[in-house]
């Protein structure tokens, strides 16, 4: 039976602050505003916008957000406790937090003796006073004050008594929630459970959890803390964050909602989760993690024939939730592991009835296994597979016939870029088209020449854009004479599709993938016509 957590859980997103500390991530002010809008639409309760005392970009962000109406979320500014030797009212960081004019402020302080003595270089008593003074001063001036107990779990392991004193200082000063932080990400879930239990027995204030993923357990630690009564959860979209990242809200939210029964988002909001995940990847200019739980492209993808046969009868046989609940969808992959069920499933997805054509199905299963043994891969090239089905049915239309092509790649001198040109001869509707094009490399030149030859006959090909191009060497034993597989991703204004080519010659492999890409566009356009 699933664990039930009856209490409501507050979701606190720190993608715009902690998430930006990840390697390879840099958000502009406009990026941050767009992400904040998406988080608000998702239904996140609190959005941590940044540290206004640390950089001009975050100051500008908070200024820009004053013109943005948030419907479900409340904005939080983040900063540290006051510096040693100053009063909170005189501290520049505290002043910057108030200038951000957010309804909520989150401050962090030290919980571990090591950091108090080595990083802050103050006495243990002075650290307690810094926490109390800063929290109390802010609480009198903003609606909500959250206190992040930095390095709390490590501090508790070193000295439980002192770590608890830091929390009590924040509690006595009026903190609305005290967040236990596993800042180094080294605490395991069972350790966190014991420590959270001990803290709950000593404090009356609401508790939160903030976990990092350095041990690969940030999500598990977070869910364990919630099971122990924590009702405030911090994390980032896609787990973005420093080092190995933060707890991933895209895994935490559905686990809370669907598996633990915790109130956090509505069913309608939960369906937007995958969309928001992908949106944040795009803004960050990072590839989507295909294997990300719940929201990844492969999260509900089935490849083995036995699995596919089972999920067709009942998705629950190999799916822990219905993918639609989080805005995802079931996928069936085709490969040399495929059986009849895979073929029938994909054909139905394409609107092709193969149930009554046992001979074609057997032929496709056999061809598929032979092609994949020869290096083809259709998992990322479903457009090529759909054309393969049409070919097996003898319905694939040939829109042109190649009479020949030639590719010239010439480097005239050291230090200068090579010159690439492709010449191509095609026959279209009994007409011969002979043309040439230059390009940024031989494949690009061939692609341009092919399009140039075809576009006057098929104007819709002007809509097709080459979105991605991958080359993989399949067997290194032959060295430079090895087979290569080319995967091409193309798209128009409506959708994206993948095609594949395999050959010992990279130009020939590219040609196969490019031809499939353009023919799929024409086939797709024809399907739309009544």
Textual characterization of the structure:
- The chain is an alpha/beta fold and 530 residues long.
- The protein has two domains: 256 residues, Alpha-Beta Barrel (TIM Barrel), CATH 3.20.20; 128 residues, 2-Layer Sandwich (Double Stranded RNA Binding Domain), CATH 3.30.160.270.
- The chain is 39% helix and 20% strand.
- The strands form four sheets. An eight-stranded parallel beta barrel has the order 1-2-3-4-5-6-7-8, surrounded by nine helices.
- β1, α1 and β2 form a beta-alpha-beta unit.
- α1 packs across α2, α8 packs parallel to α9 and α16 packs across α18.
- The chain starts with 9 loop residues before the first strand and ends with a helix.
What does the largest sheet look like? 8 strands, parallel, barrel
CATH class of the largest domain: Alpha Beta
- The CATH architecture term of the largest domain is Alpha-Beta Barrel
Total helices: the number is 18
CATH level-four homologous superfamily name of the largest domain = Aldolase class I
Derived from helix and strand composition plus strand pairing, the structural class reads: alpha/beta
Work out the helicity level.
Answer: 25-40%
Q: Which strand order spans the largest sheet, edge to edge or round the barrel? A: 1-2-3-4-5-6-7-8
The coarse silhouette is elongated
Query: End-to-end distance, in Å?
Result: 51 Å
């Amino acid at each position: 039976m699933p664990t039930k957590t009856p209490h409501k859980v507050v979701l606190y997103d720190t993608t715009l602050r902690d998430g930006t500390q990840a390697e390879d991530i840099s958000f502009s002010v406009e990026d941050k505003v767009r992400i904040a809008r998406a988080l608000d639409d998702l239904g996140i309760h609190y959005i941590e916008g940044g540290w206004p005392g640390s950089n001009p970009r975050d100051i500008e962000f908070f200024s820009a957000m004053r013109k943005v109406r948030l419907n479900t979320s409340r904005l939080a500014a983040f900063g540290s406790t006051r510096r040693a030797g100053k009063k909170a009212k005189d501290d520049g960081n505290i002043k910057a937090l108030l200038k951000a004019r957010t309804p909520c402020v989150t401050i962090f302080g030290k919980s571990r003796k090591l950091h108090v003595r080595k990083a802050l270089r103050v006495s243990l008593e002075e650290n307690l006073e810094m926490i109390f003074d800063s929290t109390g001063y802010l609480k009198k001036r903003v609606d909500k004050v959250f206190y992040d107990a930095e390095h709390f779990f490590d501090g508790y392991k070193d000295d439980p008594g002192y770590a608890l004193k830091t929390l009590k200082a924040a509690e006595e000063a009026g903190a609305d929630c005290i967040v236990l932080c596993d800042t180094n990400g080294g605490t395991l879930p069972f350790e966190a459970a014991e420590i959270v239990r001990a803290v709950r027995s000593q404090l009356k204030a609401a508790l939160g959890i903030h976990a990092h993923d350095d041990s690969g357990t940030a999500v598990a630690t977070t869910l364990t803390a919630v099971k122990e009564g924590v009702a405030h959860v911090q994390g980032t979209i896609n787990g973005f964050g420093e080092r190995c990242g933060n707890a991933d809200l895209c895994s935490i939210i559905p686990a809370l909602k669907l598996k633990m029964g915790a109130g956090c988002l509505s069913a309608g909001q939960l369906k937007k989760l995958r969309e928001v995940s992908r949106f944040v990847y795009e803004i960050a200019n990072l590839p989507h993690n295909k294997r990300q739980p719940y929201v990844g492209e492969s999260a509900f993808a089935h490849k083995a024939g036995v699995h596919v046969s089972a999920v067709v009868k009942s998705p629950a046989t190999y799916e822990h939730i219905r993918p639609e609940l989080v805005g995802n969808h079931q996928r069936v992959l085709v490969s040399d592991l495929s059986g009849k069920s895979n073929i029938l499933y994909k054909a139905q997805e394409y609107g092709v009835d193969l149930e009554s054509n046992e001979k074609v199905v057997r032929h496709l299963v056999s061809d598929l296994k032979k092609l994949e043994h020869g290096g083809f891969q259709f998992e990322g090239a479903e457009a090529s597979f759909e054309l393969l089905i049409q070919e097996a049915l003898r319905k694939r239309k040939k829109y042109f016939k190649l009479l020949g092509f030639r590719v010239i790649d010439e480097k005239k001198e050291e230090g200068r870029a090579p010159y690439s040109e492709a010449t191509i001869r095609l026959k279209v509707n009994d007409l011969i088209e002979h043309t040439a094009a230059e390009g940024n490399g031989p494949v690009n030149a061939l692609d341009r020449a092919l399009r140039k030859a075809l576009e006057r006959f098929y104007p819709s090909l002007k809509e097709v854009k080459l979105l991605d191009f991958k080359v993989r060497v399949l067997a290194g034993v032959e060295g430079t004479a090895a087979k290569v597989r080319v995967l091409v991703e193309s798209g128009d204004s409506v959708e994206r599709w993948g095609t594949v080519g395999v050959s010992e010659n990279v130009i020939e492999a590219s040609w196969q993938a490019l031809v499939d890409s353009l023919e799929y566009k024409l086939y797709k356009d024809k399907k739309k016509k009544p």
